[in-house]
Each structure stands twice: as structure tokens, then as C-alpha cells.
Amino acid sequence: MAKDGDNGWKEYVWNPRTREFLGRTASSWGLILLFYLVFYIFLAGMFCLTMYVMLQTLDDHKPKWQDRLSTPGMVIRPKGDEYYQITYNTQKTESWDMYAQTLDKFLSPYNNTAQVEKNNVCKPDEYFQQEDSGEVKNNPKRSCQFNRTILDECSGITDRYYGYQEGKPCIIIKLNRVIGMLPGKDGQAPFVTCGAKKEDTEKIGELQYFPPNGTFNLMYYPYYGKKAQVNYSQPLVAVKFLNITTNEDVNIECRINANNIPTGSERDKWAGRVSFKLRINTI
Ligand SMILES: *[C@@H]1O[C@H](CO)[C@@H](O)[C@H](O)[C@H]1NC(C)=O
Ligand SMILES: *[C@@H]1O[C@H](CO)[C@@H](O)[C@H](O)[C@H]1NC(C)=O
Ligand SMILES: *[C@@H]1O[C@H](CO)[C@@H](O)[C@H](O)[C@H]1NC(C)=O
Ligand SMILES: *[C@@H]1O[C@H](CO)[C@@H](O)[C@H](O)[C@H]1NC(C)=O
Ligand SMILES: *[C@@H]1O[C@H](CO)[C@@H](O)[C@H](O)[C@H]1NC(C)=O
Q1: Which of 151, 208, 213, 219 to mutate to test the pocket of ligand 4 (most atoms within 8 A of CB)?
Q2: 152 in the same domain as 34
Q3: Is residue 63 domain-resident?
Q4: Is residue 170 domain-shared with residue 212, that is, in the same domain?
Q5: 24: how many CB neighbours lie within 10 A of its CB?
Q6: In this structure, are 143 and 265 located in the same domain?
Q7: Could you tell me the distance, in angstroms and rounded to a whole number, from the CA of residue 146 to the centre of ligand 1?
Q8: Residue 65 in domain
Q9: Residue 12 structural domain
Q10: Residue 69 belongs to a domain
Q11: Cα–Cα distance between 84 and 14 in angstroms, integer?
């Protein structure tokens, strides 16, 4: 009995009499394979066709979907640690040297020589518009020079340690890029202001901004995107802490002021703002 069952199983796998493998002849198997082959080629073809049609409708130079009123975030350099905490000791070179190095690296594309090579001298205080005319793309688009020397005492040129050594550190702020954004209305440029959180107001001391008034000149807007405007240099604002209380934590918040950029909206509490903690030890 057991032997018979065994035979039946074997015969199912390979039946020498009918020349069937797993119950099918070679030609039957062949047809099945052929069917699936054609089927999958067809599916792949459909996929490629759909992709192709989709990609045709995308413009290389402009995102198809973008929030209409996205408020840009702000970031600082040097970043400090992951909590935006910048701590160092003026007595210990190795504790602040890395901040100076970070800024050197960050600012090197802003060297005047590099800017002159890449970018235009633009007319200040007005938008640098380079619209496409209908279907005719006005590409590539030029960008405006942002010379490192604009940052003056925070440029790392007159003071290669950016004030860190003497306890008057510079922090550099940039506004994240938003394609097509025209910040400021009626010819008023957006500007950055920094202040201490409530409990630290006594400790922040006097601030100095570069460029003066902490403005982002209107000529750096609008931004047309990475592909259309390859050499774009984001404008920067540096803030120097001239008399900050040492040996204590100071909580600082900087924000963008523009008459058409809402800050700290419901949707994004951090829009247009950045907070960080500065602690300068001297002992
Ligand atoms: C930028 O300028 C600084 C000093 O002015 C120099 O040390 C640095 O090598 C320059 N960087 C580039 C990329 O040219
Ligand atoms: C940037 O610096 C270069 C050389 O120092 C100068 O020729 C150029 O006019 C400056 N650009 C702007 C926009 O100030
Ligand atoms: C970008 O900069 C390079 C030099 O670094 C220059 O040759 C090129 O023309 C610039 N392109 C645009 C679109 O400004
Ligand atoms: C800075 O702002 C003050 C007052 O708003 C203005 O009088 C002054 O011209 C501004 N300075 C610069 C360099 O924009
Ligand atoms: C610096 O700040 C201290 C208080 O923290 C104050 O007593 C001193 O007058 C300030 N110095 C200057 C030059 O503003």
C-alpha cells in the first residue's frame, strides 16, 4: 500500500508514460511561461509609458507642487550641537576653533573673487526678476553677488576668529530658500532681529548686525530653483554679540521681519524663527 502511494507521488512529479512533469507536458509548460513572459513585458511597458507621460508634464525648472504661502525656516551657522547650543571657553582655543573653521568653510563660496566669477552686480533694493516669456524659458538665470566682505567684522577676513576668541562671537543666519518667494512689500527689505528669551533679557547685551540693520536685500529674490539658477548664493545676515553675559546660558531667538511673511504660524511654529543657546565660559 505504502509503496503504491509512493509510486503515485513519483509519477505525479514525472510521468515517463505520458511524459508529463507535474501534470503538464513540456509544451503546456512552455505556453504558460510564454504567457507570463508576454504579460510581464506588457506590464513593464505600461509602467514605462505612464512614467514617461507623467515626466513630460513636469517642468524641470519649477516644482509642480508647492505650498503657496510657505514660510521659510531659518538656520544658523555654526550650528553647535543638535540642540543648537553653542558653548565654548575663551581660554581654550580648541573649544572655539572648530566654530571658526565651520564658518571659514561655510563662507568660502562667498569670497569676493568667487562671487565676481559666478554672479552679477545687481541693482540693490529691487527684485531681480527674470521671468520666462510664455513657453520660452529664460534659462539659465543669473544670480546676484553676495560678497563675503559685506559681513565686515563677521566675515572672518578682518578678524579670522569671528570674535569667538574675545567673547564677542558672530552667528550667521540664513533664510531657507523658497522658490518664487518675494519677501517684503513696498520695497521694504526683510530684516533679522535677535533677542533673548524673557528670563535672559538682561544677559544678551548689545548686538551688531551685518549688513547694517540685518537686512536681506531684495535683489536676492525671487529664487528660481536649483536648476534654473545654478550659481545662486543665499544672502546672509551676521549678528555679533558685543557684550553677552559670560559663564551663564543665554537663550536667544532670531526672527525674520517682513511685512508679508507670517512668523510662527499655527501650522509651523518655527517658521521664520530660530532659537539657540549661547554659553561663553571664561573660567
Ligand atoms: C576664501 O578666502 C579666504 C581668505 O580670504 C581663503 O583663506 C580661502 O582659501 C578662500 N576660499 C576659496 C574657496 O577661495
Ligand atoms: C564684490 O567684490 C568685488 C571685488 O572686491 C567688487 O568688484 C564687486 O563690485 C563687489 N560686488 C558687490 C555687489 O558689491
Ligand atoms: C556660474 O558660474 C560659473 C563660474 O563659476 C560661470 O562660468 C557660469 O556662467 C555661471 N552661470 C550662471 C548661469 O550664472
Ligand atoms: C537702518 O534702518 C534705519 C531705520 O529704519 C534707517 O534709517 C537706516 O537708513 C538703515 N540703514 C541701512 C544701511 O539700511
Ligand atoms: C555690558 O553689560 C554689563 C551688564 O551685563 C554692563 O554692566 C556693561 O555696562 C555693559 N558694557 C557695555 C560696554 O555696554
Answers
A1: 213
A2: no
A3: no
A4: yes
A5: 13
A6: yes
A7: 15
A8: no
A9: 2-56
A10: no
A11: 71
Q: What percent of the chain has pLDDT over 90?
A: 63
- Contact 206 CB / ligand 5 (< 6 Å): yes
> By percentage, how much of the chain surpasses pLDDT 70?
90
Integer Cα distance of 182 and 13 in angstroms:
74
Q: What is the pLDDT of residue 277?
A: 95
Same domain (yes/no): 11, 149: no
Atom of ligand 3 nearest to the CA of 229: 13
Per-residue pLDDT at 1: 43
* Average pLDDT score over residue span 265-270: 64
* 245 & 143 share domain: yes
- Position 28 scores a pLDDT of 86
Average pLDDT over all residues of the chain: 88
Whether 61 is covered by a domain: the verdict is no
- Same domain as 13, residue 107: no
pTM (two decimals): 0.79
Q: In total, how many domains does the chain have?
A: 2
Region 153-177: mean pLDDT is 95
The partner residues of 280 in beta bridges, in order of sequence, read 88
Q: Are 96 and 45 in a shared domain?
A: no
Are residues 105 and 26 part of one domain?
Answer: no
DSSP letter at 179 equals B
CB 106 within 8 A of CB 114: no
